[in-house]
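Final report, closing paragraph on structural work. Over the funding period we assembled a curated collection of sequence-structure pairs, and we close with a single example.
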Amino acid sequence: MEMRVTIIGAGSWGMALSKVLSDNDHDVLVYDNNPKIVDKINTMHVCIQLNEFVPESIRATHRLDEALTHGDVLFFVVPTKVLREVINDVLPYLDKPKLMVNAAKGIEPKTFKRVSEIFSECFSDTQMKGFVSLSGPTHAEEVIRGLPTLITSASTVEADAKYVQEILHNPHYFRVYSSTDLVAVELGGAIKNIFALASGILRGLGLGDNANAALMTRSLVEMGKIYEHFGASKEALMGLTGVGDLMVTCTSTHSRNFQAGYKIGKGKDLDETLDSMTMVVEGIRTTQAAYELIKRHHIEAPIIEGLYNVLFNRVSPTIAYEKLLSRTLKPE
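Its predicted structure, as stored:
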């Protein structure tokens, strides 16, 4: 079935998803507010962030009215911190109810609201036909090159999750699973960015593979506590959007959160690190939100607390990890 799809956001992940959808013979229009990026897509057929070619069938526009009229399905591929702003821009141009798909991984700072909650607040039932969130161990750099990737399509409405599963699935390189545990899928995609930052810091400090394996293992424990607080299933923690996403983002230099952490481990402060990054580091804001959450609800999460102190209280990374190692001994 050929669908008319609009991708909002021509970043690396937006363009990678555009390639998958185009390879599946869907009619894809990409929206971006930067005319130069739009021109590169239309004339050179290239994703400039990754320096990779994309199918010539993919078209781009910087006109929201054209983008919103085109798509029956809208993919939002923008950083969580600007999501409300983008939604407010979109609202005047919605001509009919649309199926909304979120492809960003993040939590709203201060409120700790998941993306689905933001969408529910901003869109009425007459504007939003349904909501689906995508998450899993996915690097855009590999997807756009057609390397094998698995991802999860999640919605509280099973039919919506399966619908997006069908339009995205590509038997050659992009396998999609469906889920109705939307809370777990959204939490996993956001929280793992915190631990990717911590993993990068360890690597920057030169602490080795043993330390990174320990970090990932204990990170799962802290993720599990937050899952439990929000009523998400522990089974999902062991799936693609939990341990799968955690593993890929804590071990790969493709991860922007890992890259940022690595620079901090090498001695840069937070401002220097962010100034040197060309892409949004979602884990910074998520760390702040998660720290406020664990303090408010008395959740023991020493890795999150330690990372928060490194990022926002200028605690030395070495002092932070030594404090973790010197905690009171206890059973595993």
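The mean pLDDT is 95. The CA atoms of residues 152 and 177 lie 5 Å apart. We thank the funder for supporting this effort.
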